[in-house]
Amino acid sequence: MSRAFRIGILHSLVGTMADSEKPLVDAARLAIEEINGCGGLLGRTLEAVVADGRSEPATFGCEARRLLATEGITTIFGCWTSTARKAVRREVEAAGGLLWYPVQYEGLEESANVFYTGGTLNQQVEPALDWALAELGNRFFLVGSDYVYPRTANRLAKALLVSHGGTVWGEALVPLGSVDFSDVIQRLQEAGPLIVFSTINGDSNVAFYRQLAAARLSPSRYPVLAMSVAETELLSIGDSAHGHLACWGYFQSLKTESNRKFIAAYRARFGSHRSTSDPIATAHTQVRLWAEAVRKAGSFEPGEVADAAVGCHLASPLGELCVRPNHHVTRSAMIGRVGADGQLCVVWASANPFEPLPWLGIERAGLINEPVIKAALAAWPEVEADARLERHRSAEALQASEQRFRAIFEAAPVGIAECDATGRYLRVNERFCEVTGFSEAELLATTVRAVTHPDDLAAELEYVRRLVAGETERCSMEKRYVRKDGSVRRVQLTFSVVRRPEGGAHTFIAIVEDLAARKLLEDEGAANRQRLDDEAGPPVLAPASLHRS
Fold first, then answer.
1. At 56, phi and psi to the nearest 5?
2. Of 48, 124, 213, 454, which one has the fewest beta carbons inside 10 Å?
3. Contact (Cβ atoms closer than 8 angstroms) between residue 329 and residue 323
4. In angstroms, rounded to a whole number, what is the distance separating the alpha carbons of residues 330 and 399?
5. Nearest Cα to 329, choosing from 315, 302, 344, 310?
6. What letter does residue 195 receive in the DSSP assignment?
7. Cα–Cα distance between 320 and 326 in angstroms, integer?
């Protein structure tokens, strides 16, 4: 047999996603070993090169680039979160490689270089909500991790629930890796019994279920219907998950011959205590699907394999899968309830597999402008994710600079005030208080209008209008303040607007220079210059000889 063909396995081995992803590495390795045990592929053995994404999308992208460029690998199996997948997708598209992705996701994506073997929203979220509305009730609370898949899944969930007579009583998105759900728990308690639709990912689930149990929010009154909790996560969660629900296309408890053989092989290789799950079974199955495509193509070349993969059928623990032209696969759905043994017992299963509709059914609408709509939809999750990332970075930068700004604000030799769009003062410095004659507490209880001379108000409001409309970035005018004692103080006012990320006016910053104080300084300066001139006497002329050339 000729030299080995190397393939990449890229998952998180450390970080918040490690507990979920490490078993997928084992599942892919098992499939590779099984293929090698049957004589390899096209006369070659397969060799796995494992890389660690470290639960960080940027690291996933860097490791994918290394596997493709440095290791010379053309096919990668891996990723869990959509942000990680998007980072790797960019690399495989640039290199002309392939990514096989095994986890349910939000759809709105299609790539010639990616095969999506997990469920789409219509293969998991839609059937789960249809069942819940029929069997559990119509009051829902949505909770998820704050990244692309949960945000998109929750938007679809809200639309489906409203159109089917359901009610969304609240929504909470928490950062990936969060362990504090006290605010979510409080909101659930205040709302009363309802169905909790969960798209929380990773080890945050352990904290979430345990805090639910500690607050005595039982599954009989607050059943959690999870999209991202499977048997492996249930091992860590323990008794707190008993009685709650999950929707997948596979459960370890399935009594099929294909599943029995898979579980036996997996435990024989990695330990009798090990649990399987939908993502684990999918990670194993997608390697075998790729091998079928390689055999059909008679080649390892990514483009030829991609062409051959379409139409491939494979019997698996997940049932029979078929690769469709959109690089997704047919999949069944089922609802399971967590039993005392930590296993998911099937309470409902679809009669037939669902076709993959990553574009939420638009691909079946026969629209003339379908490519344009797809392009717009494909851009939306990434644009939103990038926008949220930029807002997050902006918030971090703002927080880091707040102390410096406050120091400048308080120590400035000119008056500085911040007010909101209604003119209410939000913050003033000591010098501004001196100019107006009011204390800080008095100013924060009043508005710009109340301390402005009536004859200057119209001009100032016109400048404000121009700022809000974006006609100018800053304005400057002479203005009179009516001081606390009734006297009038003339100032030079310069002000600008601080805008919200979405573009609306947020707050105004005013810089106030006391013209009386400035004139006093100017007069003192002029007097000092005159005194110096008087002391120096008349100017001395240089001798004429110094002017000769």
1. -125, 120
2. 454
3. yes
4. 47
5. 310
6. E
7. 18
Q: Residues near 435 by Cβ (< 8 Å), separated by ≥ 6? A: 415, 481, 489, 491, 512, 514
- The span from the CA of 60 to the CA of 79, in Å, is 8
Please say whether the beta carbons of 293 and 312 come within 8 A: yes
Instruction: Encode pLDDT of 460-518 as tens digits.
Output: 998 888 888 778 778 889 999 999 999 999 999 988 887 654 444 568 888 888 887 66
User: What is the C-alpha separation between 400 and 199, in angstroms, rounded?
Assistant: 31
Print burial letters for 182-208: b (CB count within 10 Å at least 16), e (below 16): eebbebbeeeeebbbbbbbbbbbbbbb
Query: Of 454, 450, 462, 458, nearest to 417 (Cα)?
Result: 450
What's the pLDDT tens digit per position in 23-37? 999 999 999 999 999
Separation between Cα atoms, residue 467 and residue 461, nearest integer Å: 10
Per DSSP, the three-state class of 490 is strand
Position 451, amino acid: V
Give strand pairing partners of 101.
116
Cα separation, 179 vs 473, in Å, equals 43
- Output the six-digit token pair for 214: 């500690």
Q: Are strands 98-101 and 75-78 parallel, antiparallel or unpaired?
A: parallel
Burial of 398 from C-beta contacts in 10 A (0-12 / 13-18 / 19+): exposed
The rounded distance, in Å, linking the Cα atoms of 395 and 341 is 45
Say which residue the tokens 């069942």 belong to.
131
Place of tokens 């362990």: 179
Gap between the Cα atoms of 503 and 521, Å rounded: 41
Residue with tokens 């440095």: 70
* 245-248 and 224-226 beta bridge pairing: parallel
Angle at 76 (CA atoms; ends 74, 80), nearest 5 degrees: 155
pLDDT digits (tens, 9 = 90+) for 325-380: 999 999 999 999 999 999 999 999 999 999 999 887 766 666 566 676 566 566 55
On whether the CB atoms of residues 233 and 227 are closer than 8 A, the answer is no
Q: Assess contact for 234 and 257: CB atoms under 8 A.
A: no
pTM, 2 dp: 0.68
**Residue 158 neighbours by CB under 8 Å, 6+ apart:** 142, 168, 171
**Interhelix angle for 148-163 vs 82-95, to 10°?**
120
From the CB of residue 261, how many other CB atoms can be counted at a distance below 10 Å? Answer: 11
How far from 129 is each of 161, 197, 247, 327, 417, CA to CA, in Å?
Answer: 8, 9, 10, 25, 51
> Comparing C-alpha atoms, which of 271, 312, 316, 274 is closest to residue 290?
312
Distance from the Cα of residue 467 to its chain's centroid: 32
